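Customer ticket, subject: "Can you confirm the structure for Bifunctional 2',3'-cyclic-nucleotide 2'-phosphodiesterase/3'-nucleotidase?"

Message body: Hello, I'm evaluating your service for our small team and ran a test protein. I'd like someone to confirm that this is what the system normally returns, since I don't have a reference to compare against.
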Amino acid sequence: MNIRLSRRGFLAGSGSLIALHPFAVRAQEGQAHLRIMETTDLHVHVLPYDYYADKPMDTAGLARTARLIEEVRAESANSLLLDNGDFLQGNPMGDYIAYERGMPEGSAHPIVEAMNVLGYDAGTLGNHEFNYGLDFLTAALATAGFPIVCANVVTEMGETPDRDTTLVPPYVILDRTIRDGSGAEHPIRVGLIGFVPPQIMEWDRQNLDGRVMARDIVEAAQAWVPVMKAEGADLVVALSHSGIDGTPYAPGMENASVPLAGVEGIDVLLTGHQHLVFPGPDFEGVEGVDSAAGTINGKPAVMAGFWGSHMGLVDLLLERTAEGGWRIASFEVEARPIYLRDEEGEITPTVEDAPEVVAAVEAEHEETLAYVRRPVGKTDAPLYSYFALVADDPSVQIVSNAQTWYIGQMLDGTPHAALPLLSAAAPFKAGGRGGPDYYTDVPVGDVAIRNVADLYLYPNTVRAVKITGAQVKDWLERSAGMFNQITPGGQDQVLLNPDFRSYNFDIIDGVTYRIDLSQPSKFDADGNLVAGDANRIVDLQHDGQPIDPAQEFIVATNNYRAEGGGSFPGADGSTIVFEGPDTNRDVIVRYIVDQGTISPAADANWGFVPMPGTTVLFDSGPRAAEYLDDVPGLSIEPAGEGPDGFARFRISL
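Agent reply: Thanks for trying us out. I re-ran your input and got the following:
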């Protein structure tokens, strides 16, 4: 499987060098400096543009990462540029190409075209490459000017993995020429092998079942790496679209980069999939990982964030062996960002767009703008969040509806399908520090893809957890920390706790319940237990019957919550039964497309326990007054002006 390619970007002219890396300066005769660059999880983010919000952004875009690539190539004579997967799907440009334009013969996918412009040397498949089906994947890869490798996606299994027929070549060996410290040129053979989480068979079952199979990552590596070595690979670089996880190795594990690094013969690991940065604090304390030096089991490794936010870089000082091959004498690892964020959260870009990349996708960018501005469905009720913190709310309802729809499909045919399915969702745009205009407000009628940004601000991915009825109650008790304790009979008491973040106010759909505001909160604003005997959540029922504390439920949520974000009972990472490959935003878009017309009116599955003679106050956006009559189960009236442009409202409990 030896593929000879051009030396594009590998052996640069000496006249283009500007600030040499210390390895390049230090290299002597028989020593050479090799730079390996990684992009990962680009998700079609060619340009620094947020298509959901319909505005530019400075935290993403291969057009920006391209500037870092240029710098690295200028700093050394020998470099390779590799992609670690998840490039075909992940933003509206990807959806536009897949669902609208398609891949007619002779056309190029915009992310592939941009990668061609930058002269990538190779890449691997990520799990999201399979989201649009194998036919689309094949068409999108057809114009790639570089090899795509993956060793563990198989169309026909052999007796051992190295006898498999793989969907794309399992590996490639690049025959190149490398310049040593004396200026002499030598041959070098760089082997590249790719891997993807075997969970693709769950996440994209409808696209893959009966067409391909997935091997365990480590099993495939143990079989194929010796073959690469036997073919004369001097170095083996693993393109591991798999994360870094310190748990003991188990066959079929999703994030297998740590045990993969233990496979003999692998010299360098490029990792991804988790949308994190390595080296760096994201992986401090993980067994076998040095988060400062950038090593996994002692081998250099890197993870370059996501959406082009970083460029991963592994610098190698190579030495000629007595047998005429090469060994790693020293290395350095870093993840270079395209922006800086200060303590106040302000973003400062560190690079500008590369004009050749912008030009490569200019037409598709304009077509995508028209696509996101075009309606994808309709809503027969307004989508607003003015009362999301005090009553059941349509903007939260649509998120719950979409999550329930998606997880129901994903769990169909699994042992979990028989369990009751609930959905937890929180309001994101609900005033507060965002100001009096920081609310969702989509009128009845057309819904465009960019409106989804109003419904779901963050690029979370969907998760499902299995918890008990007792944990459902405590989950809601944690959410009820949003409210101050209210004295029965008191007038105009402040309802909302200003220290409680709106994204931690989860509403659980699929059950009914009421909140007793006369009780103290069981948890404080940070999720710490402060009143173990408190019971704000009362009349908690499922299907009209009181919830059995021992009964098991599936709760659809997001990765932040399921993995412990917000410190919710039952959500600490240990209860996850499904990890979806899709963002919650994408799920909402798909749900709207599927439904055609959505009916997001709140179903009033929760409310407050009546407290006769008691009133409370809360602040919202001035436009909330237009929807006072639509709030289910509450008597609300204007109560004058609030601070900083907010309007104040009174609830009679």
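A couple of notes from the result: Residues 394-411 form the longest helix (18 residues). The domain at 2-6+32-368 is CATH 3.60.21.10 (Purple Acid Phosphatase; chain A, domain 2). Feel free to reply with more questions.
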